[in-house]
Design goal:
Layout: H1 3-12, H2 14-21, E1 31-35, E2 44-50, E3 55-60, E4 65-71, E5 75-81, H3 90-100, H4 102-108, H5 110-122, H6 126-154
Antiparallel strand pairs: 1-2, 1-5, 2-3, 3-4
């Protein structure tokens, strides 16, 4: 790596790193994360401070997560990033979350919709799962029917004419 690249990293900071590394979700103060394991499973929190390479201090005053140290293995980072100072107090973070309307932004994301659909699917009873299965069958039948009609219209080949001297084959019915 040349000196110029090192200088640009220092000057341009994290945006330059994003271009070089190819990913955008860095572990940093203000990053919104989803807790995917433990007591607070399914809740959203904000990283307040990075302790070391495996643990962070998180807080979520309006999101139902108490201020605590949590392992990075239990977090899934989101694209949302709040502009907060390192080690921000809970009340200040609460004000920023309300100001940014974070709960609404997260609820509108495709990730939240996917998680809600998974939760709904897990809560289905036996009859509702049966109904879903039947609806999938009906949908597949209609799609296959439309595809077959479209393909038959595209490739209409003329039927082969039998040769003039040949007789159609006779099949004998065999009973057992």
């Amino acid at each position: 790596m040349c000196i110029r690249d090192r200088y640009q990293r220092r000057v341009h900071g994290i945006n330059k790193l994003q271009e070089l590394m190819g990913f955008k979700r860095f572990v940093q103060a203000g990053r919104v994360a989803y807790i995917n394991y433990g007591v607070d499973h399914g809740k959203v929190c904000v990283i307040v401070e990075v302790i070391n390479s495996t643990r962070v201090l998180v807080d979520g005053p309006t999101l139902g997560v108490p201020r605590q140290v949590i392992s990075l293995r239990r977090l899934a980072l989101t694209d949302h990033l709040l502009k907060v100072a390192k080690g921000i107090h809970t009340k200040s973070l609460e004000a920023i979350i309300k100001k940014e309307d974070l709960v609404k932004k997260i609820g509108e994301s495709s990730w939240a919709k996917k998680l809600a659909a998974q939760k709904r699917r897990a809560e289905l009873n036996d009859f509702e799962r049966f109904q879903v299965m039947m609806l999938k069958r009906q949908k597949a039948y209609l799609v296959n029917k439309d595809v077959a009609q479209a393909s038959s219209k595209k490739s209409k080949k003329p039927a082969k004419k039998p040769k003039s001297g040949s007789q159609p084959q006779k099949f004998h019915h065999i009973t057992l």
